[in-house]
Amino acid sequence: MLQNPKRYTITAALPYTNGPIHIGHLAGVYVPSDIYSRYLRLQGRDVLFVCGSDEHGVAISMKAKKEGITPQEVIDKYDGIIRKSFSDFGISFDNYSRTSAKIHHDTASDFFTTLYKKGDFIEQVTEQLYDAKADQFLADRFVVGTCPKCGNEEAYGDQCEKCGSTLNATDLINPKSTITGETPIMKSTKHWFLPLDRYEDFLKEWILVGHKNDWKPNVYGQVKSWIDGGLEPRAVTRDLDWGIDVPVEGAEGKKLYVWFDAPIGYISSTKEWALREGKEWEPYWKDQDTKLVHFIGKDNIVFHCIIFPAMLKAEGSYILPDNVPANEFLNLEGNKLSTSKNWAVWLHEYLEEFPNQQDVLRYALTSNAPETKDNDFTWKDFQARNNNELVAIYGNFINRVVVLTNKYYNGIVPQPNELSEVDEATLTELKAYPAVISSSIERYRFREALGELMNVARLGNKYLADEEPWKVIKDNPERVQTQMYVALQIAAALSSLCEPFLPFTATKLSRILKIESPLSWNTISENSDLIATGHQIGEAELLFSKIEDEEIQKQIDKLEATKTANKAENKVVESQKDLIQFDDFAKMDLRVGTILEATKMPKANKLLILKVDTGIDVRTIVSGIAESFKPEDIIGKKVTVLVNLAPRNLRGVESQGMILMTTNAEEKLVFVNPDADAANGETIN
Q: Which GO BP annotation is one of this protein's (predicted)?
């Protein structure tokens, strides 16, 4: 681990521009990387925080085909949505680029050419899956089939999402083209491969020995598993119609594989930033005094810890990542987040539905961050963290301090008198928090760091609750001057300490306290006079607002509607039964009827006893619908009745027919209703 680096290069995984940003992306990558970058800037460090849209690869082509538009239209649409979402949410990138930009195409092409000229690639003719009907080779995501390891029949050509196994498309059992549905054939094609096996010894020494004690266990474990399993050459080119051209002769119609070009996007984004700012880019990627940190989700660990480092090592002039603090996955209300199934909380929609509450989501996601294991986001937990923590602890402390300062001193920070032991102990504890929070952040434990930040607010609340200045003011106003002075120092410290986690709150609190520039970490650690005597603060404003049950229920209902829509879309229709003759159908006597009475069957949860007017007679029918309908709700209901069904005794009651039912998208029973104008006894034929 690099100690005291001259500069930091921080990268956040490039989001695919085939959809908007959701909370899983935020929790896994963008909130932690932003916390880290903001913290380092407050430390006065030289920080470069880069990202950009990942605009090549099969995901884009698939989206374009599905929507009937061009890949360029897809990437332009979602790049705009993603950029605005990040900006509105306060993700403080120094540069956000695009892999479709010329500077990236040039950078990726030059990188490939350098390795090609050095002889680092293996040129090989292989058999690949080919869709003869579509007249094209099939990229991994254009192939589905049965996973050879777990039997999942919907595995993709690169990965089984059920068991997590990494696959090759040719591994699939019964593969099918997602373009035409045809069974692909094998066809020869030439590609270039990066021989990862050549770098096995280097990777063992660099990661398994060198980073055994400082990389997260989930990252180290996955890398070790890959290396222990033996590394093999991996293709860096693909037969595609969308991406960066392979810059060598004989490679017409071939593109750089997206996993090869995407991480180079960090470098091209740095170049773009340097050109705009008039700076040198190379120190941020080639100077040994630079600390390179990749923030990613666990699905990108292999690419950032094995493949990209092997590429950098092969090129020879680049530094390697000091750490890759990958997070696990965030689930939503007990289910895996899914872009294709719309099972997500989309950032742009959240910002519309919860205006000016960016920090509430940042807080909830950091408090529940999947740092070492998969975690679950629920709207009830989100509400509780806002109401019980941000409002009740942080907001409550600040509100009391500002209100009392304005009430007692017209908003002017009072002159303290002699400090008591409690005052001294409180200010000493306050000075310790920057180091405590720093320790957690430097070890990428952002959830822990946020907990320590909230302990600063708890310190303030406890101090006021114990000291009770609102009572002391009557008999000892001099003592209250000191109490309020101490409380204001805690408030001032919070305005800076919260900035990495809650940047909008930090800005608002600084405005209320009229602190023009953020206090540095060192100032809070070393100085008790953070907001000086005689300083004029502003009027009280609520930092956070309570979120009501109705707002949360609206979000839960929205997800339930999505679940219902998914069920309807994915519902498997039963196969047609064996053919019958007309005479078989004619034997059934189906009539229009009306339910006259309905009562529950004693000691039976599922059965209702119905009196039905069939037009022929009024008869008793026992129906297993009690769990779906209340008796009083179905009286007068028009129904379809099979009247010539042989009677059957059910719990001592003779049932003389059957009511026709089906299920809706929510798997609930519904009546097969005749037209309202049809009279009882009318036959259905």
A: methionyl-tRNA aminoacylation
